[in-house]
Amino acid sequence: MRYTYGMIFQYIFMTKNNILLTLLPLAWPNMPPIGLGFLQAFLEENGIGADIIDFNHSFYALSGQLLQKQWVVSCNTSLEETIFSLIKENYPDEFDNAIEKMLAYDVIGFSCFKSNLYMTLNIANVLKSKKNNVKLVFGGPEITRQFFKGTGVFREDIFQPADYLIVGEGEIPLLNYLGGKHCKGKVAGFEQLHNLKDLSFPRYNGIDLSSYPKKHAIPLQFSRGCIRRCNFCSERLLYKGFRTRLRKSILDEIAYHKEKNNGEYFIFYDSLINANIKELDLLCEGIIERFGSIHWEAQIAIRNDMEHSVFKKMKQSGCYNLFVGLESASDTTLKNMNKGFSHDDALSFFNALHKENLFFGVSIIVGYPGETEDDFRTTLNFIIQHKDVIPQIAQVNPFTYYDGTNANKTADYKSNPAAMERMEIFVEEIKKNKIRHTNAFLGNLIEKNDRDK
Predict the structure, then answer these.
(1) Do residues 44 and 199 touch, judged by C-beta distance below 8 A?
(2) Is the link from the previous residue into 282 a cis peptide, with omega within 30 of 0?
């Protein structure tokens, strides 16, 4: 969908890239920022040039091995709070150079996550002190989280330096802001695309994709939104409604990155790759017809309505890894979570994946509100009994509350010692039973300062 806001705006933005989209530390450094890629492509489709500078990646690459190791530790709150001063003190020339690069732009859009909010706010204040008329736009998952946390009112340290705050998707609000159409104050709330049929795919113009740590890896997004309404999940709050891109667009995107960027591994960022089973089936067919197969991975939901033919096509098209949010094997807990499946559904689904030799890992939450000792043991026993079917435990965490969700905040692990105790028991038992697991994701949602206590 093409939007036009007048020849004056078109002329200014087409003749000069005075808009910067950026990601600051700390954030996952392995692949290019897909959100900024979509924004750049959308703006360019509408005649507005925008540059992307991934300062998170550049400072990560500059860092020593020890800091890089800490960089990828999830919920590393101690580093999140010190990364600004650490970079400024240890890399002063590079820090000053980054500030100068940003000051060359008239509008700067920041992609905000919980892990880089502190850094972003500090940089924003530096920029405003040097160039008061620079326009700063904050968007990303953390801005949406803060919106729910404050029930629509932002903290002063976030609200004050921002010229515009985007809650939810960024394409339409950012385009409106650049076109002078932000008539409802400085906060845009869930002004999203009605459909994704005309959404241009990211080309990451100006970014050297070969410089990222995960070589030949390209992030993809086939859909936005989630069909499930798990009570504990904050990801569903990022979008209003579920939409799917055109299959041809995804296939063209894969072809583009295979040719231009030597793309070999394609990682879907969808909440659920099988939210629309028919579209997944047709996508797999398209991959098979056009490429034979590609290496791809995704998150998938446990469903009792998937035909075995879909699993076969997933394998044939090159799926090599799936992340499954099991969370519990207790029917009582699953119902309390509003997961939308049962213990038996999960086992049947895992058997179907196993039959087609599709590798997957499951996520587990212990200490969920209302979980009894029997519920916990049911989950633990399920994992042990079916370790020959379940290839890997991908993630184990005590219940963590997220603002805006329907779960009981008082049951958060910080005030629920039983949740931490159960996680320790769970980890001990899977190690004892030699069940494959990812060490880095055992308790990865526990804030680093809490883990050290």
Answers:
(1) no
(2) no
44 with 133, same domain: the answer is: yes
Same structural domain, 259 and 185 = no
422 three-state secondary structure: helix
Question: Strands 51-54, 360-366: parallel, antiparallel or unpaired by DSSP?
Answer: unpaired
Give the total number of structural domains in the chain.
2
Q: Are residues 337 and 402 in the same domain?
A: yes
**Burial of residue 135 (number of CB atoms within 10 Å: 0-12, 13-18, 19+):** middle
Q: Are strands 319-327 and 295-300 parallel, antiparallel or unpaired?
A: parallel
Whole-angstrom distance, CA of residue 204 vs CA of residue 40: 8
Name the token pair of 18.
């005075």
DSSP label of 200 = P
Q: Report the CATH number at residue 172.
A: 3.40.50.280
- Provide CB contacts within 8 A for 257, sequence distance 6+: 209, 218, 263, 266
Instruction: Give yes or no for a contact between 316 and 293, defined as CB atoms under 8 angstroms apart.
Output: yes
Per residue in 10-68, pLDDT tens?
444 443 559 999 999 999 999 999 999 999 999 999 999 999 999 999 999 999 999 99
Mean pLDDT of the chain: 94
Looking from the CA of 396 toward its CB, the CA atoms found within 13 Å total 27
Q: C-alpha angle with apex 57: 397 to 140, nearest 5 degrees?
A: 60
Give SS3 for 33: coil
Ramachandran sector of residue 47 (left: φ over 0; alpha: ψ -120 to 50; beta: rest)? left
Range of the domain at 48: 7-189
Global model pTM greater than 0.70: yes
Asked, for residue 367, whether it belongs to a domain, the answer is yes
Q: Considering the domain boundaries, does residue 121 fall inside one?
A: yes
Residues β-bridged to residue 244: 223
The residue among 338, 431, 426, 340 whose CA lies nearest residue 382 is 426
Query: Whole-angstrom Cα distance, residue 407 to residue 413?
Result: 13
| CA dihedral over 141, 142, 148, 152, signed as positive or negative | negative
Residue 208 lies in a domain: no
Separation of alpha carbons 444 and 396, rounded Å: 8
User: Helix (H, G, I), strand (E, B), or coil: what is residue 310?
Assistant: helix
